[in-house]
Design brief:
Length: about 70
């Protein structure tokens, strides 16, 4: 009986992407897969897009806060 491997979680992809950024590396599907040793390209890609969107939202919010508080 073959057991299906568990899929990669969004949290695992986010953690790997954050680790890559802290090492001054651009997060890519291949680098994330090297770190996690699991996950399909499509699943990692989906979670990586969510991570990028979250980074963009955080940056936009930070800039808005800085602009608002600098008056």
């Amino acid at each position: 009986v073959s057991m299906a491997r568990p899929g990669i979680t969004k949290q695992e992809v986010f953690a790997a992407a954050n680790r890559l950024v802290s090492d001054n590396k651009e997060p890519t599907i291949d680098l994330i897969r090297q770190i996690t040793q699991t996950g399909s390209h499509s699943t990692i890609g989906m979670h990586l897009r969510d991570w990028r969107r979250a980074q963009s939202d955080t940056t936009t919010l930070a800039i808005a806060c800085l602009l608002y508080t600098s008056d």
